[in-house]
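Go through this pair.

…
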Amino acid sequence: MKTQAVVVSSDPVYQFWLQNAAGATMDVALLSPSGGQDVVALIEARGRVDVLFVEFDSQEVAQRAALVERFLERHWQIPVVGLGADDNPQWVLAAMRSGARDFFVLRRDDATLSLQIGRLLRRSSTAPAAQPAAQKSGKILGVVSAHPGESIAFLAEHLALGILEVQGSNERVLLLDLATPAGAAAIFLNINTTYSALDAINDAYRCDQSLVDTAFARHSSGLYVLSLPEDLLGQPAMDSGELLKLLQVLRSLFSYIVVALDGHLPLSALVSVANEAERLLLLSDQSILRSRHNKHLLRALRLEGCVLDRAGLVVDDYRRRLGLEPKNLAELFELPLFAALPIDPSNRAVSMNSGEPLYTLARKDTYALGVKKLAASLTSGQPIPAASPQGFLDRLRGA
């Protein structure tokens, strides 16, 4: 039985192109809607439709995206593919966000187009009628601090990259940076993003592998990255329920998701991540100010019913004899001490400014070694050993 396809386009060239590529295996009908017509009704009037192709161009991006959304609300089982004269990022993103499974560019990859269509139809015919949100359960690791600061994204970045190194590049790891300063993780990794964490939260119900591969930024290491828009001013506005939905979907698409958070987020959002996280890392330093703010954060989480038995303390910029020792801080917070990380200020500044992580810039940096050890502990499935801060003389002795 031939595949029945419909092309929504004002240009018949797409019909001829697809028909030539598919040959006798598919009948391609052209639908050129005029103003005011109910395009979904016109598609339904044609009878059986196995695949829908929709052209996107600069004049009708919003209208075509809305068409795809309305069609899939009623016919979710039928695959939709976006078409375009080129791979304009705005068109591709609009198509994928509206629910399209793929995007084909006119006269590109003509030799493999029939194979692409065949794979698309096979995937659709073998897909289950309803997919649970978390068939595959990836692990969420949260990095949180009450006081905003660049050290949150810096730790989350190196933790995510450390997981990739420890687990192997075949693992799919996502860094979801919801902390402020906005966009810090993407900036530290020298990634220019057009699709933000806020976009992904708004698209939670339609997030799938196609959207991830098309819209999510990716670092040269293989790490996927979602950050807040760097031009965001003030506190990010987000729906905590949609954030929770997104996390549940992402767990089916990634092996590990490292989430960076701070006290500027709604408490309900912090609670959602804390309850979902396999491990929650409270980031503090040895200052009175940040210590007190973090104590208030933990109290607020506990009053909301968060069980913090999987949480632990990470001390950033550890310095000996500064007054507030990590073990004392851990007792104050009623948390185990996961790590105390000394820093080399010049290495950190160069890393942040150059867009190169410490793993490539200074692999023997104490901070880099400490975070990689922490990544190995967090992914081992074993209890995390109590951290013992190391100073310069301790390291010389091999302690």
The chain is about 45% helix and 15% strand. The first helix runs from residue 13 to 22. The mean pLDDT is 87. The first strand starts at residue 3 and ends at 8.
